[in-house]
Amino acid sequence: MSNKLFCFGTGFSARLIARKLRAEGWEVAGTTRSTDKFDALIAEGITPFQFADGVAVANIADALRGVTHVLVSAPPGGNGDPVLNLHRANLAALPAQTWVGYLSTTGVYGDRNGGNVDEDGELLPSGKRGRRRVAAEKAWFDLGARHDLCVQSFRLAGIYGPGRNALETVRSGRARRIVKPGQVFSRIHVDDIAQTVLASIARPHAGAAYNVCDDDAAPPQDVIAYACGLLGMDPPAEEDFATAVLSPMAASFYEDNKRVENGRMKRELGVNLRYNSYQAGLQALLDDILRKSTGDPGEN
Fold first, then answer.
1. What does the pLDDT look like over 187-240, one tens digit per residue?
2. Considering the entire predicted model, what is its pTM?
3. Does the pLDDT at position 299 exceed 60?
4. Would 234 be classed as within a structural domain?
5. Helices and strands in the chain, H and E counts
């Protein structure tokens, strides 16, 4: 039987995972909130389905027929996990030990006042988005335990990659250096998310949770300064978090201060990070930009 992946949500991370599996001969289908994105998914060999909060996949039986793996990146909302709200019974009917990957967030740990945290740490989310993630993770693990599905959760740090990184922020003129003393964030390049998920598919562990982050938690202002240095630009002036004008969403990212440990993904899945620091990741992204600007295709 051939492998078939179904993605509930085909965004930045899930789309790269889908492309990599397509290159290995997998059949891939996935959802998008709007039919406007169907053509783009079809061009990548992904069979599209529409799915949005409160709007079920119209032909879910066809969508899940023959599926061997399910990837979930749709975030929970105020009413809980949208996939489970609408399609719990469909997922429960999948064959035993079907692989299910849930893309979660390190926000489930909440604030550690700059200390370290691993997957055995208590889940103490700071805000409503983190609390929703904790509840969604529990619901997915419960589904797996009740219906013999191989569910694992990937707790992602701050995601960056092509078109979505500090270099682009600096080049667009939107960069700010907000300084909150002692504050550090963990990050992860989207390529390393993809390799971790693929490693889990090869070596599944039902009920496991994995922190997916690099080895270098760092202050956000340092990342912006480094990106400016790579681009030969002067960094923006530092701003004190206490007096900086931030949107509620932007301010919420500073609620949690922790160093996330990633040893489990290395031990259990054999992950060897391609970009173990933001410096390595940003340098590679800049190199890729420069190659493309000169017409050099680089690596295939």
1. 999 999 999 999 999 999 999 999 999 999 999 999 999 999 999 999 999 999
2. 0.96
3. no
4. no
5. 11, 13
| Residue 104 within a domain | yes
Summarised one tens digit per residue, pLDDT across range 23-33 is: 999 999 999 99
Q: What distances in angstroms separate CA 200 from CA 74, 102, 122, one per listed residue?
A: 19, 11, 23
CATH number of the domain that residue 48 is part of = 3.40.50.720
Question: Is 220 contained in some domain?
Answer: no
CA distances from 91 to 99, 122, 142, 151 (A): 11, 28, 12, 11
> How many domains is the chain built from?
1
Instruction: Answer whether 94's CB lies under 8 Å from 138's CB.
Output: no
Q: Which residue has the tokens 């680089």?
A: 298
Question: Has residue 123 been placed in a domain?
Answer: yes
Contacts 24+ apart (CB under 8 A), 228-231: 228/170, 228/175, 230/167, 230/282, 230/283, 230/286, 231/167, 231/170, 231/171, 231/286
Q: Give the domain range for residue 55.
A: 4-159+189-213+260-275
